[in-house]
Design a protein that fits this description.
Elements lengths: L2 H8 L3 H6 L3 E2 L6 E2 L18 E2 L15 E9 L5 E7 L5 E5 L6 H13 L8 H7 L9
Antiparallel strand pairs: 1-2, 3-4, 4-5, 5-6
This protein binds zinc ion (2 copies).
């Protein structure tokens, strides 16, 4: 254990402690173990990337909602690190969570690709639409 972790634990770092428990994912029933997550503490299932709405601030276990947090998007943080946007199916709250080292890469990619595979306009008409906007983003009369 490095010194930084030790200091956190000495301050009663229950956040990390709760997150290192083994648990069974309530969404895909996979047995999730703390090993393999890398340095991040685990707050979602590495297989289906789902989570439960138990935190108000990350790791605080202060929320009474308990709804299922669905992975709805990924975004790239400064430095190129990916994070997952979770949305609670019960109350609609959004939260951002760092990816873990063993998160399912296919699932991550499919979340990232989803908007591109379901564009809100026909892709074959992109050229036409750009021309309509005069190539500047404003519609010509
Ligand atoms: Zn799961
Ligand atoms: Zn919720």
């Amino acid at each position: 254990m490095n010194r930084q972790n030790k200091r956190k634990r000495e301050q009663g770092y229950y956040k990390t402690h709760a997150c290192t428990d083994h648990f069974v994912c309530k969404v895909c029933n996979r047995q999730v173990v703390p090993e393999g997550a890398g340095s991040n503490h685990r707050n979602h299932c590495p297989n289906c990337l789902s989570s439960l709405h138990v935190d108000i601030e990350p790791g605080d276990r202060e929320s009474d909602c308990g709804g299922r947090m669905e992975p709805v998007a990924v975004w790239v943080r400064k430095g190129g690190e990916w994070a997952i946007i979770h949305r609670c199916r019960q109350c609609g709250v959004f939260s951002s969570n760092r990816v873990a080292a063993d998160d399912n890469p296919m699932k991550l990619m499919s979340i990232a690709m989803k908007p591109l595979s379901e564009p809100p306009f026909p892709l074959e008409r992109i050229e036409e639409m750009v021309a309509l906007m005069g190539g500047e983003g404003s519609l010509k009369k």
